[in-house]
Amino acid sequence: MNLGLTIIKGRRSVRKYKTDKIDDNIIKETLEAARYAPTARNVQPWKIGVVRNKETLEKISELATYGKFIKTADTCFVVFAEKDHKFRVEDGSAVTMQILLSLWSFGVGSCWVAGNNMEYSEDVRKLLSVPDSYVLISLIPAGYPADVTIPSKKERKEIFFNEEYSEECEE
Ligand SMILES: Cc1cc2nc3c(=O)[nH]c(=O)nc-3n(C[C@H](O)[C@H](O)[C@H](O)COP(=O)(O)O)c2cc1C
């Protein structure tokens, strides 16, 4: 397996973190990786926040219904996209994935925590003083893994089809 595939297939959502600090250079490289995400018509309609202040992390985790572990992370990336952009969700999701994979390539665990259309989206935006022309797409807490759960993945034959749709594909 090549290195890229090892990173892609090895990534898992990590929700338990060690207290070690993530090196600033990893944060920087990850933001660089984010810049290279694909985006419809190359509009790049995103703003990506980096939150490392403990009090702010706690406030975000209070807001995020299924992200209570955010307060235990070293860093939380916060992805916003322009509210009126047609492809805001796709573009914001692409950049989110780029961040998850970049972090994992450095051995840093993270987890995509829902942001788009969540009841707390606006509160997170206001907490971080982001203009209302942006909407929250995702929250990405990150830290060195203290524990990793390995969720099962569907079998290839259940999710792919060759040429035309079939319930189960023959490999
Ligand atoms: C759009 C989206 C929203 C998610 N929201 C949450 C969340 O709010 N809290 C959480 O703990 N995990 C969240 N996850 C992570 C998924 O639970 C996780 O990706 C899934 O269980 C598969 O596990 P894996 O990432 O280890 O492959 C989200 C993932 C996606 C793509």
How would you characterize the overall build of this protein?
By secondary structure, this protein is an alpha+beta fold. The protein has one domain: NADH Oxidase. The chain is about 35% helix and about 20% strand. It has 6 helices and 7 strands; from the N terminus they run αβαβαβαββαββα. The protein has helices at about 5-10, 25-35, 55-65, 90-105, 120-125, 155-160, and strands spanning about 15, 45-50, 75-80, 110, 115, 135-145, 145. The strands form 2 sheets. Strands 2, 3, 4, 5 and 6 form a 5-stranded antiparallel β-sheet that branches. It has a two-stranded antiparallel sheet with strand order 1-7. The longest helix is centred in the middle third of the chain and has 18 residues, at about 90-105. Bound molecules: flavin mononucleotide (FMN). Flavin mononucleotide binds near residues 113 and 114. Flavin mononucleotide binds next to strand 5.
